[in-house]
Design brief:
The chain has 997 residues and is of the alpha/beta class. 22% of the residues lie in helices and 18% in strands. The protein has a 23-stranded mixed beta sheet, with helices on one face. A 6-stranded parallel beta sheet has the order 34-36-38-40-42-43, with no helix packed on it. A hairpin with a 5-residue loop joins strand 45 (716-722) and strand 46. It starts with a helix and ends with a helix. Residues 1-28, 635-649, 654-661, 663-688, 847-864 and 937-943 have low confidence and may be disordered.
Length: 997
Amino acid sequence: MVRMMAIQFLVLLLLTFSRPQLAMSKPHDNSTDLEALLAIKAGLTDPRGLLAANWTANTSFCNWAGVYCSPKRQPPRVVALILENVFLRGAISPHVGNLSFLSLLHLGTNNLTGTIPDTIARLPRLAEVKLLQNYLSGEIPAGIFNMSSLVKFSATYNNLSGPLPSSINLPRLELISLSKNQLTGPIPPSFGRCSNLQTISLSYNQFTGAIPAELGNITALSTLYIGENELTGSTIPTSIGNLTNLEVLDAGNAYLEGRIPEEFGNLLNLRKLNLGYNSLTGTMPTGLLNATKLYFIQLFQNNLTGTIPSSIGEAWPQLTTMNFAFNQFSGGLDFVTSLTNCRSLNYIVASGNPIEGVLPDSVGNLTADLRYFLIDGSLINGKIPVGFGNLSNLLVLDLAANQLTGELPSDLWRLEELEGIYLDHNRISGTVPFDLGKLAGLNVVMLEENTLSGSIPDSVGNITGLQHLSLAGNGLSSSIPDSIWRLEGVIDIDLSRNTLQGTLPTKVGGLEALDTLDLSENRLSGNISTSLGGLKMLGHLDLSKNSFRNQIPESLGGLTNIKYLNLSHNALSGAIPKSLASLPFLASLDLSFNELEGQIPRGRVFSNSSIPSLKGNADLCGAPQLGFETCSSIAGPSNSKKGVHLLKYILPPVAFVVLLVSCFYLLLVHRRRNIKDKNLSEDPSLSNLRAISYYELVRATDNFSDANLLGKGGFSSVFKGCLDDGLAVAVKVLNLDAQGALKSFDAECRALGMLRHRNLVKVISACSNLDFKALVLEFMPNGNLEQWLHSHDRCLDLHQRLDIMVGVALAVEYLHHDHPSVVLHSDLKPSNVLLDEHMVAHVADFGIAKMLLGDGTSVLSASAPGTIGYIAPEYGLTGKISRKGDVYSFGILLLETLTGKRPSDAAFDGGSSLRQWVCEAYPDGMSKIVDDRLLSEDATMKPQPEVLKSVHQCLSSAIELGLACSEQSPKERVSMRDVVPMLQKIRGEYVSKALGA
């Protein structure tokens, strides 16, 4: 009721202040409005029945849902059509252009398709058009850009394409938002004639050419988003400095060149500036320091030079984020002292710049809110200041690849929140402190390539969350402490290039998540432990340049994930185990300079002369393609004569059989190529799956017809199918032309083939050949969570939503904590939550899943994982993904499930977010943010007061959990191990009280 009154008040205002001819118009027959509305209804599918139940002939159309009429005009005429977020499908009828008194057209957040009718441009009074978050395609009608009445036009999140018209004449326009489409061509300079414009949002398109200098004429402009386009070679026009009201300028990743204009010194109201991921040169304008309201600045990944101004902290006291990484900034570190004036600072990132000097002691005076301090890859010298110990909330300290000297300060070990410490590639001396073990939350310890000496402290085993440990390239001696082999979650251990002694114990076989073990160039001895063969996830093993002796264990054939194996320069003897020839992924093998003898195995790695290195083993034989003699030629003289005699009788029939088999094999290969019958992939993780041929998939999907198309993604299309035995399946066919598609298919095969859980989608088969690759998955008849949350013809009650989210939580908990390796999904969102016939949730789409990864900020991703709105904020600053990143995505997913709002909703365009919106309303204004369908559908289950109380308690607890999962700092987020029982408890209490269970 309140919302309806507000809309009516807005319409009244528009009518009051509309152009004079509206008030002076003579009465008209309103039958054209009725006919237009009925035509609009006829072109739409209305799954919720809103129009069918309300837009009826026995009711005045002024009382129809979403239709608003002028209260002063007789007969009444339609002045507003507001049907937002009501799940409409179909196309917008051209008859909308007959609503000649229309001022507001709001059709956002539906499932509309087709094009934008050009008849909209005929409406002389139209002030607002909101078409955001639909599936509209085609070009935007040129006439819209010449509407004298238009004030706001928003079509963000559609599939619109083509160029914008060169001539734009919108004198009243205040907002234009076209981000996240597929628009091309240049940004029209004629935007500069729109003197009332306050917001321009054109980011995430394919615009080319230059940034028009004419934009500098729009003095009212406060927000300009033009990033994520292809403005190759374009420079930032100096006229942008004329925009004295500008608060937000985002031109990141737009292929910009040239200098940042000195005129930016005029942007006194600037609060957020993003110019990252470009090719900008020159220095940072000193005038930019005049923008005293600045709280966010990103200049990373450019070619900027000069010094970082020493007064930035005094100039920008509200600064929270400073990212100057990967430029050519030089000079000293005085700016660090200046930053002590910024009491809300969270991020200091200046990596990859030739900054010189000594870190000042004033580091200890930085705000305790600081989370990230990253100045790696620079020229910093001197000692590490003890003041770092005062930064009690620091999560990541990265000073790697500098010229630091001295010992590790003891105050560092007071940083109880620290998750990652990167001090590698410096000149740090002394010992590895015993107090390092006090930091139980550490995820990454990188101290390689220093001059550390002494032993590795046994306390390292107390860092229970440690996953990445590198002490390589130091002068460490003594033996490896047994406590290291108790780190069950460790993924990478690199202790190479030290002088460590002793043996490799059997306990190493307990590190089930281990991906990399490098102990090369030490003084280790004894046997190679047979327990290594149990490390199924091990991908890199280097034991070279030690003193290991005796035979290579046959058990190494159990390293089914191994890609790199180096046992060279030891004293190993005996035969090469035949099991090594069966390792499916082994691409690099070095057994050189040992004392190996006998037959070289055949198959896989030994078949490729460019891969294995066996030199320095004089008694090996049997692989001519590798340069070794046949084993018979190495045998004694008498045996040789007998062999020759026997060969005269044996060789002819054997040769004939070989020739016959070869001919048959070639014929078979030729036949298979001709019929293109695709067989099951050889991936061992899929070897136990059902074999399904290409032709069976053709039959199952009716030759992959559009009628069976379930959906399309960046790398694939998914079809519904029915196999020969009647089993319903979903066939995910790879688009082989998409960049990265093969990698995505291989990753998904590996991930799905190794994972088994009730709430994960089940892989049935994989069909693969050179020109066709497909995954065959179990079919989910109830679609995905996206369709249920944002479609008007479907609705989930609160119990169903809780069940689904518990299922998702259980799946992610399994990936993070219950699988032998840690698996990161990296793209949790509603469309990746599939629902079976019983509405049980199954998490899907492991196309970018990361195997063998872990918590913290330890894994670099070459491309952005996940989907905008669900990606954890720390990824944009460090490029590192983690388990806590999945937790963040889960939290956003939970909030979306409860509110019915996408994180990409237009309401969050101005720098807000779904989480911030929820946080501001919680707990007092919860009724304003919760999906209204949840509050209405539960009211009939029990006496009203009891139901409302239980629903309110459930929603309050669930929202609180969603906020806890999506905290800004990864350290403050709960783990999935804790999320599951909390969510199960919330569901249990709700079911018990509200449903009477």
